[in-house]
């Protein structure tokens, strides 16, 4: 069976949200809604089978999986 790659929009949403540690700032950067970023991240987490962020009332924190996933993704986007 072929391995499916995550959707590019979800990867871009994760990269921006991880850099800013904010879904709102990521949404502003990518010209989408905060809800769209949240939806993309949730779908990416489900596809990968790991949580990428810990969500708190007014802040985000990358999980270990998120911290591991970010550097190669940033390199790929550069």
Question: Segments where pLDDT lies below 50 for 5+ residues?
Answer: none
**Helicity range:** 55-70%
The strands making up the biggest β-sheet line up spatially as: 1-2
- Tell me what portion of residues adopts beta-strand conformation: 5-15%
What is the helix/strand order? HHHEEH
What is the β-strand count?
2
> SS-based structural class?
mainly alpha
Multimerization status:
single chain
The number of distinct helices, counting runs of at least 4 residues, comes to 4
Biggest sheet descriptor: 2 strands, antiparallel
Distance between the termini: 30 Å
Silhouette = globular
C-alpha Rg (nearest Å):
12 Å
Average pLDDT figure: 94
Structure description:
The chain is 64% helix and 8% strand. It has four helices and two strands; from the N terminus they run H-H-H-E-E-H. Strand 1 and strand 2 (60-62) form a beta hairpin. The protein is globular and about 35 Å long. The termini are far apart.
């Amino acid at each position: 069976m072929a391995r499916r790659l995550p959707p590019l929009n979800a990867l871009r949403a994760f990269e921006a949200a991880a850099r800013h540690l904010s879904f709102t700032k990521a949404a502003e950067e990518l010209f989408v809604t905060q809800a769209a970023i949240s939806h993309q991240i949730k779908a990416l987490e489900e596809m990968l089978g790991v949580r990428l962020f810990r969500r708190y009332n007014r802040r985000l924190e990358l999980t270990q999986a998120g911290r591991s996933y970010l550097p190669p993704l940033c390199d790929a986007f550069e």
